[in-house]
Structure formats: C-alpha cells, structure tokens
Design a protein that fits this description.
42% of the residues lie in helices and 21% in strands. The chain is α+β, with helices and mostly antiparallel strands and 349 residues long. The chain has 2 domains: 157 residues; 182 residues, SPRY domain (Jelly Rolls). The strands form 2 sheets. The chain has a 7-stranded antiparallel beta sheet with strand order 1-2-13-4-9-10-11, with no helix packed on it. The longest helix is centred in the N-terminal third of the chain and has 93 residues.
Length: 349
C-alpha cells in the first residue's frame, strides 16, 4: 500500500496493518526455517543410508571372500584326514606282511629289513602331509585385490575433504598490505617474520603494528576453501576479514577477530582459540595440526576452520549474511627466540 493511502487511514488501522505485516513475516520466517531443517534432515538421512549400504556391500564381499578361503581350508583339512586314514591302512598292511615275512623261513633277515624299509619309505612319500597346501597364488591374488580395494577406498575418503577441495580458490598474498617486518615470497604464497624492518612504501593499506597480511583476491559470493601450512610453529593467526579492517596504531581492532569485521583462528603454545567480535572461544583440542583449512560459504553465511590432518572441524561461525567482500588474512607472529621462525605457507594443491 502506498504512503498516501496510509495517511488516510486512522492511526489504529495503520498500526494494525503493520502488525499484520510483522506477523506475516514471522510466519514466513518460521516456515522457511522449518523448510531448511527438513531439507537438511533429508540430506543427512540419505547420506547415512548410503554409508550403511556401502557397509553392507563391503560386509557381503568380505563374507564371500572368506567363504572361498574357508572352502579351500575345509578341502585341505579333509585331504589330511584322508591321509591319516590311508596311513593307518597301509601301516596295518605292512604290519601283516611283516608278521608273514617273519614266518617265511625262505626270506633272509636282511632281505626282510630291506623290503620293509622300502615299503615304509614308499608310504612316507605317498602320504607326506607337506604335499597338501593351500593355493598360494590364489591367496596372494585375493590379498592383492583386497589391498587394492582398500587403497581405492582410502583415495576416495574422507568425502568431506574431496568436497572441500572442489571449492579450492587460488590466492596470493598482497605485499602492499604486509607489516614491514613480514617477508612475502615472490610467489605470494609465504609470509615469514623478520626482525629487520623492510624498506617498503608506506601507505594507508599497510598494517603498521599487527603482523598481518591480506590476500590480493577478495570474494563476495559462492563457496571457497583454502589450506595453510602452519607446521613447526607455536604461534599464528589466520582467518577472513573485510577490507575495512583497521590497519594503523596499537588498537586491538587491528587484530584479526577482535572486531565484527573479521573471523579468526589463533594458535599459541598448544592452545586454539576462535575469535570474532572481540569474543574468544577457547577450543578443547589437544592435537597439533600441520595444516589448517578455511571454508567460507556466502550462501550459508558460514566460516569454518578445520584441522586438515584428520579433517577435524575446529570451529564454525554462522555469520548470517556477509556485508562486504572477504580477504584471506594471515599472521605468522614473532619468531619467539627462534621457536616460531617458520613461515606460514598457502597450500596450492
């Protein structure tokens, strides 16, 4: 309804219409929330069903393979049982012949010994248990095929990593934003602290207190994923930030995550902390990860940090809707007497 129509309505009618609009908006919002939850639940159920089906397929394949080996084992055991039976019969036969030979006075004692030695040797040769063996070639082939299947499955999982990798976005660090005590590699993929103040141009976009550097690229839509190598470091910060992040002076606003314009994961001496809006979220994590992943979804308003080594979710910020383009930001920290001298490196693979 146009504004001049509102002017003709009594004040009570105007308020009632506003209340109706608010109520209607609330109903639509609730319905949308239920729709999102319903769709998410359906996706989860389908994924669980697929994993259960994979488990059933693998269990059935394992059952068939083990049954094949079990049948061969049963045949080998039966063959050995038959040998025992044959041995028993032949030994009885030899025993009878030995008794008859001893009663035959025409056979010399030496000939008897030779004859019976030959029969015993013949018996041992014909009934040697070592002649009965499992089919080693087949067993080796089954084991090889099983190992190949394992390697294939491992190459396909974790599924989440393959999905996130599909969102990988190329990124280069911008040396014009780097604190003067940071050395940015010529490829733009490494940030290293140095005690020496670099001879770099001074301008508004450069951080002058916090050891930050931003990416050249920025993103305002879609889904994106990056991995940063933080191995052999005891302190670092990394995250995403709007371009409007303060860059000058001693204010904490210049630090990542200490204001509403950036989202940050910090690591110091074994402790992980997620930061946004100046609020710290200590994380109960004891593992030390060599790579950290950052996933950003503009449609979902999501920033997620992961320990790439085991694809462990560390912390997720539900931002709702981003109000500006986002830059990747890293802070390698001081070298702390040589204990933190390694660079932070963006992994391009």
């Amino acid at each position: 309804m146009s504004s001049h129509v509102y002017a003709l309505l009594p004040s009570g009618g105007f308020i009632c219409e506003l209340e109706l609009k608010v109520a209607s908006s609330t109903i639509v919002t609730d319905a949308s929330q239920q729709q999102v939850k319903s769709k998410s639940s359906a996706v989860r159920e389908n994924i669980v069903k697929k994993y259960e089906e994979m488990r059933r397929v693998l269990e059935e394949d394992c059952r068939i393979t083990l049954s094949l080996l079990e049948m061969e084992e049963m045949a080998a055991v039966q063959a050995l049982d038959n040998l025992i039976e044959t041995n028993y019969v032949l030994l009885k036969d030899i025993e009878v012949q030995l008794n008859e030979g001893m009663a035959d006075s025409d056979i010399q004692p030496g000939d008897r010994v030779t004859m019976y030695e030959d029969r015993v040797l013949e018996l041992l040769k014909e009934t040697n248990p070592g002649l009965i063996k499992l089919d080693k070639a087949k067993s080796d082939q089954l084991l090889g095929l099983t190992n190949n299947l394992l390697l294939f499955i491992r190459s396909q999982v974790p599924i989440a990593k393959r999905l996130l990798k599909s969102y990988s976005s190329g990124v280069v660090l911008d040396p014009s934003t780097a604190h003067p005590k940071l050395i940015i590699s010529s490829e733009g993929d490494c940030a290293t602290f140095t005690d020496e103040w670099q001879d770099v141009p001074e301008h508004e976009g450069r951080f002058d207190t916090t050891l930050n550097v931003l990416s050249v690229q920025c993103w305002d839509s879609g889904r994106h994923y990056w991995e940063i190598d933080v191995s052999e470091k005891i302190y670092w910060e990394l995250g995403l930030t709007y371009q409007s992040i303060p860059r000058k002076g001693q204010k904490e606003d210049c630090w990542l995550g200490r204001h509403a314009e950036s989202w940050c994961l910090e690591y110091f001496d074994g402790d992980y902390t997620a930061w946004h809006g100046g609020i710290a979220h200590p994380l109960p994590i004891s593992s030390c990860f060599h790579r950290i992943g950052i996933f950003c979804s503009f449609p979902g308003g999501l920033v997620t940090f992961l320990g790439v080594d085991s694809m462990t979710p560390l912390y997720s910020f539900c931002a709702g809707a981003f109000t500006d383009s986002l830059h990747l930001a890293v802070c390698p920290g001081h070298d702390l007497h040589g204990t933190n001298s390694k660079p932070m490196k963006i992994c391009q693979s």
